[in-house]
Amino acid sequence: MTSVPGRQAPGLRGGARVAGRPSVLGRRSERRPTPGPSGPGLASGLAPLGAAGSSAVTLDGLVASKEIVIACGPGGVGKTTIAAATAAMAALRHGGRVLVVTVDPARRLADALGLSGPEGRGLGNTELRIPDEAFAGSAAHGRPRGELWAAMLDTKESWDSLVRRYAPDVPTRERILANPLYRNITGRFVQSHDYIAMERLYDLHAQGAYDLIVVDTAPTRNAIDFLDAPQRMAEFFSSRLLRWLTAPYRSRMVNLASKPFSQVADRILGTQFLEDIAEFFMLFQSMYGGFVERAGAVTRLLSDRRTTFLVVSTLEAAPVREAEFFAHALASRRLPLGAIVVNKALPSYFRDPDAAELALRMRDGANSYAEKAAHELGTDPELTERVLFEVAESFLNFGVVARREAEEQAELATQQSARPELIATVPFFDDDIVDMAGLLRLGEVLWS
Amino acid sequence: MSATDPAGVPARKAPDSLIDLRLVFVTGKGGVGKTTVAAALAQLAAQRGKRVLACEVDAKGDLAALFEAAPTDFAGREVSPGVVAMSMDTEASLREYLRMFLRVPVATRLGPLAKVFDFVATAAPGVREILTVGKLCYEARERRYDLIVVDAPASGHIVSQLAAPQAINELVKVGLIRTQTDWMLDILSDPRRTGVVVVTTPEEMPVTETLEVSARIETETTVRLSAVVVNRVLPELFGRHEEEVFERLYAGRAELSKDTGGDVDPIMEGARLAVTMRRTRAGHLQRLREGLKELEGSQGSVEVPVLYVPYLFTRAHGLRTTGQVATALSEELGL
After folding, report:
1. Are A74 and B116 in contact (CB < 8 Å)?
2. Dihedral angle sign, alpha carbons of residues B280, B285, B288, B290
3. Which residue from B156, B244, B239 is spatially nearest to B205, judged by alpha carbons?
4. Interchain CB distance below 8 Å, A373 and B123
């Protein structure tokens, strides 16, 4: 069988299946995902055919026909968990090779997949196989039909590999990698995540090694940024301003147009820094062609019909507003909004009017009910009265929150300009989801 | 619960001095209520007679909404007695900077400047961070306000923001920028003037991220971690004996339904959910406290106060909740 208990990182074995796909065999060969000898990977190409029919209104059906699922939305709503659960369910039911990539700077996916322990130390740019045994933890599920893989986005590493690919020659490559500005931008600053995330998604998809790639994005503060990052990067490299800025350093001859600017810039930034900037941009310009072409390809991939977006939100007011904003941002770019996933909703029974009515009676009549109950159940009447009172109060309190949430959900569902194919609701789980069993429990709800 | 002095070791900061700082960055994982806590801190300080500037860095308009006010801009506007709110706008910040320090006549060249700025910011993304932190440090230095509360970026981004002056300092050896980052670092590195508050909820991921970002703030920035605020702490439903009684009632809920002439199942399920939630959360609180202890140990035995804000069963988020959180913080700070 594919996996033997106790065997670590099956992906470490060399792979033969990918023969005939030279791009796959090239870089990072030894860690390439490989199917088992008689493994589920063989069925992978057929997986979408086995899924729900054309009237796909479940997440199950939606995901079954896609190759890329991008989970986005405000921070803190459980995007990582939803992305991981979606990937796990797809691996379990649809089969094939499924990869979940988290692009969030914080290392949350490892937690959700239970990989944050010693064996999770390797979770980085390199994709790691989640052992089938991880699925066995939940009694309701057998062996997954497919394989589940996970990777983090290491911004620095991804930039470096991009430079290695596009630098015209070795000296240029080395100078870029050694440029102090480059090292800072790629290592430390926020916005370089956006571009590289989409770039890496494209790279993974282009390698053709996975049937489905589920991506968990950074919070929506940068929503537009990450959607527009490829385009912006391309514009940037073809910008006249770039030539303007680097002109004095390119020619060592200050031309008239750039003189006032470089004087001001000089006063603000200092010469050394400007030279670093200029060198950086000049070097990067040598990769211009590759970048622009690539940015265009990334943009096309995002709007491809094999790609779908899930906007994840909770029912708090601020996240709902952000989720709406995001849905509109997708719509205005003609990007496919597949589903809105409402996460951590309070159970609907909190809104049951009969129960609320009863809770009110229980609260006011705690005394008399307690007497009866204490008699029947042999509990202390005074304690029982307090418990009944608290239970009723608690119900009514949560009822207030549940009704507020219902209103938010109604608002999400009725926006006109950005209508998703479906809205999936995941209730609040009383326990945190920290392992595969939890992910699958959530996944079951998500799928139906 | 909050800061108690371990014998002989001075507390990192008596918690009541939180509002006596000059510049407070409020961060936390998305969705934990960091904007609400920032607004509440601002309101609390204002109630105690301080002139407060509340600055929203993400510019989503949520901060002003928590004072029932229309969204603010870079110029700022009084949104509540003693509280001026503003939204960060890095381009406006650059314009202000150029006007003040370089006397560049920007009014006439707004178009090109915006273009240049957009270009430089795309190219060297640290520019946005430094313009944000720079504006805030500038306000702290000018002392037009007693306290500046920053609704800062989420914990994934706060470190690059706070470390920006340092990073620029390492990159730029001479020039005006260098002298600028020097005084910024002075303000940021002074624990009597500047601090970070990390907001969390007692849940798995927020606690993990809080511990992560706390360690990073301590090691990668020069800014002091002043406090951790735990938001949405559920009330304890039952005492220990009451919980036993509840379990018996839960088991006998069919009887209870008969007695009350209704279906008590949803009510009992609801209570059970509340109890489980509370219990799970208590575990995370424990982990948070232990993690912070460990961090304190590695950082020279100064205590990070932990402040608790209860879960609010409210129908909306606005001035009403801001006031309730402010009251809770006030109690926690012993004011």
Report:
1. no
2. negative
3. B156
4. no
Q: Do A347 and B129 touch (CB under 8 A)?
A: no
Average pLDDT, chain B: 85
- Nearest CB partner across the interface for A74, out of B30, B271, B314: B30
* pLDDT at A224 (0 to 100): 59
- pLDDT tens digit sequence for B292-318: 999 988 766 578 999 999 999 988 888
Q: Are residues A214 and A296 in the same domain?
A: yes
Query: Could you give phi then psi for residue A93, rounded to 5 degrees?
Result: -100, -45
Window 243-272 of B: residues touching A by CB (8 A cutoff) are: 245-246, 248-249, 252, 255-256, 259-260, 262-272
The strands making up B194-200's β-sheet, listed across from edge to edge, are: B77-80, B83-87, B52-56, B147-151, B23-28, B194-200, B225-233, B306-310
Cα-Cα-Cα-Cα dihedral sign, residues A372, A373, A377, A380: negative
Residues A340 and A367 grouped into a single domain: no
In a domain, A9, yes or no: no
Domains and CATH numbers, chain B: 15-236+304-332 (3.40.50.300)
User: How close B4 gets to chain A, by Cα (Å)?
Assistant: 31
The verdict on A212 and A82 lying in the same domain is yes
ipTM above 0.90 for this complex: no
| Residue A278 and residue A299 in one domain | no
B10 at interface of A, judged by CB pairs closer than 8 A: no
- The CATH number linked to A98 is 3.40.50.300
Distance (Å, whole) CA A8 – CA A122: 12
